[in-house]
Amino acid sequence: MNLPRTQPDRTAPTPRQSAVLAVLAAAQFTVMLATSIVNVALPQIRAGVGLSDSGTTWVVNAYTLAFGALLLAGGRAADLLGRRRVLAVGLALFAAASMAAGAATSPEVLIAARAVQGLGAAAIAPAALALVMGLFPSGAGRGRALGVWGAVSGAGGAGGVLLGGVLTQAWGWEWIFYSVALGTVAVLAAVAALIPGAPHTPGRAAGRFDVLGTVTVTLALTCLVWGLTDARGTGWTDGRVLGALAAAAVLLAAFAVIELRRPNALMPPRMFTVGRVAAGNLLMALLGSVWIALFFFLPLYQQQVLGSSPLATGAGQLPLAAANMLGSTLAPHLSRRLGATATVTAALLVEAAGLLWLSRISADGSYVVDILGPSIVVGLGLSIAFVQLTALAVEGVPAQDAGLAGGLVNTTRQVGGAIGLAALATLAGSVTAHTAVHESHVEALTAGYRAAFTVSAAILAATALLAPLLTRRTSARTETVPASPASGPHAEQTTRTS
C-alpha cells in the first residue's frame, strides 16, 4: 500500500538560516540589554565613580541619546557600505565601549563610554534587522523570524534588569559592563564565522551617502532627545529645554526640505508610499512611548515602595519576560489567522488592560498581588504588538532600503519612548509632589506611579482605536524592486543597488 507523502514545510528555515538568525537575534539582545541593565545599579555606579545627580541621569541618557539620534544614519550606512560590515563595526565599537565603561574611574569616561555604546548600537540594530529581512523573504518565514526578533527584544529589556541585579549584588557594578562586552565579542566572532562578507557593488560608493541630510537629521534628533530627557529633571519651561526643542523643530523642517530635493536622499519619499510603512512607524512610536516608561517605573515601584533588593527586582521581571517570549511566538500565528489589523488592535487592547490593572498598585501592596498578574498581561500584549508593528513597518520596502527601514522603525520607537518617558515622568513627579502635602512619601510615590500607568493605558487604548484606520490596505503605489533571489546570508550581496 502506498502512503501519501508528507509535503515538507517550504517556509521552515534551514539549519544554516536558523544559526544565522540566532546570531542576529543575539546582536539585537545586546542592544536591548544595554538599555536596561544599568537601571538597578545606578546607586552603586554613582558611588563608584563619584557621579552627581545630573551625572547619574546621563549614564542612561548618553546611551539613549546617541542610539536614538544615529539610527537613521546607521541604517543607511548599512545599505550603502554592507550590512555585515556595518554590523561587525558596530559590535566592535559596542564591545570596546562596554569594557571602557566597566573600567571607568571618572564620570567623564563613563558617560563618554556610554555614548560610544549608543553609537555602536545605532549601527547594530538596523544592520541586523536588514540581514533578517534578506535572510527571510516576505511571508510565513519572515513572520516566524520577526517573532524570534520580538522575543529577544523583550527578553533583553526585562533580562537586563535581572542580570543587572544579579551582577551588581554578586560582583559589583563594573561587571554589568564587562559581561556585555564579553557577550558582544562572542556575537562578533559568530558573525565573522557564519555571515560571509559581500563583494564591492556599485551602490556602495561613499559619494552616494547623503551627508547633508544625515548631519541635519542627526542634529535634529540629538536636540529632540536631549531636550526631552533633560525636561525630566529641569522641567518643560527651562530655557535650555525649550531651546533644544525649538532647534529640533527647525532642523526637522530643514531636513524635510533637503530630502525632497536630493536624488540620493537619506530618507527618500518612496519609503512612505509602500506597504504600511508610515502606519507601522506611527503606531510603533505610540507603543514606544509606553514601553520605555514601563521599564522605568516598574523597577522604581518595586524598589522604592515595596523595598525589593536589586536582585529581587530583577527576578520580578522574569514572568514579564516569559510572557513576552510566548507572545512573540504566538504573534505570527495570530496574524495569519486574524489578519494584521485585528492582531495589532487586540494586542494593544490587551496591553492597555494590563497597564490599567497596574494602575491599582498600593503603597502597602506586594509583588504577587500588585505586579505578577498585570505584568504577564502587559508582556503578552506588548510582544504581539511589537512583532506585528515591526512587520508592518518593513512591509513592501525595496531591498536596497532594508537597512534604512530597520533604522527608521528603531528610531520611531526610541523617539516615541523619549517623548513618552519625559511626559509621564513629569506627570508622575507632579502627582507625587501634590500628594506629598497630605500623605506619606511612599503613598505619594505610589500615587505618581499609578497616574503614569493610568495614562499609559489610555494612550494604548487610543492607539488601538487608531490602528484599524491606519493599517487598512490602500491603493498606495508600491515600488516593484527585484527581490533578492537568495534566501540565506548571501542575500545581502544582491540588495544594495540604487
Produce a short descriptive summary.
It is a multi-pass membrane protein. The protein has 2 domains: 16-201 and 264-472, Growth Hormone, Chain: A (Up-down Bundle); 210-263, no CATH class. It is 75% helix and 0% strand.
Key structural traits:
498 residues, mainly alpha, 2 domains, 16 helices, 0% strand, disordered N terminus, disordered C terminus, transport, DHA2 family efflux MFS transporter permease subunit
Folded structure, characterized:
The protein is an all-alpha fold. It has two domains: 16-201 and 264-472, MFS general substrate transporter like domains (Growth Hormone, Chain: A, Up-down Bundle), CATH 1.20.1250; 210-263, no CATH class. The chain is built from 16 helices and no strands. The protein has helices spanning 15-36, 42-49, 53-81, 83-103, 107-135, 140-170, 174-194, 211-234, 239-261, 277-305, 310-315, 318-338, 340-358, 367-393, 402-435, 441-470. α3 runs antiparallel to α8, α10 packs antiparallel against α16 and α15 runs antiparallel to α16 (441-470). The longest helix is centred in the last third of the chain and has 34 residues, at 402-435. Mean pLDDT is 83; it is low at 1-9, 200-207 and 474-498.
CATH superfamily of the largest domain: MFS general substrate transporter like domains
Rg (C-alpha, Å): 22 Å
Examine the secondary-structure arrangement and name the CATH architecture of the largest domain. Up-down Bundle
Total beta-strand segments:
0
**What does the overall shape look like?**
globular
The helix/strand series, from N terminus to C terminus, equals: HHHHHHHHHHHHHHHH
Query: What level of helicity do the residues show?
Result: over 70%
CATH topology of the largest domain: Growth Hormone, Chain: A
Q: Tally the helices.
A: 16
For the residues shown, what is the average pLDDT?
A: 83
Quaternary status: single chain
Tell me the distance between the termini. 57 Å
Query: How big a fraction of the residues is strand?
Result: under 5%
Sheet of most strands? none
Structural class: mainly alpha
CATH class of the largest domain: Mainly Alpha
Number of domains: 2
Low-confidence stretches: 1-9, 200-207, 474-498
Main location: membrane
Organism: Streptomyces osmaniensis
Pfam families: MFS_1
Protein name: DHA2 family efflux MFS transporter permease subunit
